[in-house]
Amino acid sequence: MPKPALHVAVTGAAGQICYSLLPRIAQGDVFGKDQPVVLQLLDLPQALKAVQGVVMELEDCAFPLLAGIVVTDDPKTAFRDIDAAFLVGSRPRSQGMERRDLLSANAEIFKVQGRALNEAAKRDAKVLVVGNPANTNAYIATRSAPDLPLGNITAMVRLDHNRALAQLAAKAGVGTAAIDKLVIWGNHSPTMFADYRFATANGRKLPELIGDETWYRETLIPTVARRGTAIIEARGSSSATSAANAAIDHMRDWVHGSDGRWVSMAVPSDGSYGVPEGLVSGAPVICAGGSYSRVTGLEIDGFARSMLDKTVAELTEERDAVAALLA
Ligand SMILES: NC(=O)C1=CN([C@@H]2O[C@H](COP(=O)(O)OP(=O)(O)OC[C@H]3O[C@@H](n4cnc5c(N)ncnc54)[C@H](O)[C@@H]3O)[C@@H](O)[C@H]2O)C=CC1
Ligand SMILES: O=C([O-])CC(=O)C(=O)O
Predict the structure, then answer these.
(1) Which keywords are on file for this protein (predicted)?
(2) Could you say which DSSP state residue 272 is in?
(3) Which of 143, 211, 141 is nearest to 173 (CA)?
C-alpha cells in the first residue's frame, strides 16, 4: 500500500534552479524513496508556458513517485494544503550586483507569498526560502504568516556550508563526509561567517589538522563568501545545480534528521549568540524527528564575535529596510 502523497510547493518553477531541483524531488531525494509527491508549481503568468515544458519533461521521466503536478500563477492555489515549500521564485542578481541589491525587487514577493502560506498551507508545513536575499525574504515571510509556527520558515545557508565543506576537505586531505561541526553563521551574503573552530574530521580537530589559521581567515572565509560571485563571473548566471542540491540537503535533513551531525540552517533567532530575536540567521542545528534544534552553549571568542556582529549588523539593516513594507 503506497503512502499518501505529500504536497510540495515549488516557486520559480520555470527558472534555472528548479530545472535541477524538480527532478530530484520527484525521484525521492528529499522526502524518501517510498514517498509519493504532488508538485504544486508556481510561477509568473508569462512563465507558465515554460513551466508546461518542464512539466512535459517531468512526465517523460516517468518517475514512479510523482503522483501529480499542479501548475498555477496563484500563490494560494500553489500553497493549498502543502506539507513543504521551496520558495525559489524571485529575480537572481547579475554581475556587479550584491544579493542585498535584490531586496527591493524581491521583498514584495515574500510578503504576498507569506500571506498566501498563512492562508493556505498546512499548519506544520516546512518552508525553505532560496530566493535572495534569502534570510530577509524569509524574515518577511515569517512576519506575513503569523499563524504558522515561526520556526517553520527557514532560509538557505546550506550552499555556503557545502562550499566550505568542500574547501576544507580538500585542504585537510579528507572526504567531505568526514567533517562534522562546521557552522555558517548569519546572512547568505559576503558577510556570512564560516566557522571551523568546532569542526572535526574523523574525530580530529580540523583547525589542528589543517594547522594554518592564516589560510582559514584570509583564504577560506573570503573564498566561501565570494563563491556565488565567482560562479556568476565564470558562468554568466548564478549557481543553479549546487543551489538545488543545497536546497535538497536542507529539506531532506529537516524531514529525515541529520544523524546527530551539525548542519547550518538560517532560522528565526531566539536571541541566542547575540542575534536579535526574529532575524533569520544562519546557525548550527541538529535535525531529528522532523524538527531541528539549535546547538547551544558554543563559545564565541573575540574573532567569532567580530564576524558575527558584522553579519548580524547587515541582517539588521536589511530588516530595517523592509520595515515600511511590513507596516
Ligand atoms: N540562497 C541561496 O543559496 C541561493 C539563492 N539563489 C537565488 O534563487 C533565486 C532564483 O534563482 P534562479 O532559479 O537562478 O533564477 P531564474 O531567473 O532562473 O528563475 C527565477 C524564476 O522565478 C520566477 N518568479 C519571479 N517572480 C516570481 C513570483 N512572484 N512568483 C513565482 N515565481 C516568480 C521567474 O519567472 C523565474 O521563472 C534568485 O533570487 C537567486 O539569487 C540562487 C543561488 C543560491
Ligand atoms: O550569488 C548569487 O547571487 C546566487 C547565490 O546566492 C549563490 O550562488 O550563493
Answers:
(1) NAD, Oxidoreductase, Tricarboxylic acid cycle
(2) G
(3) 211
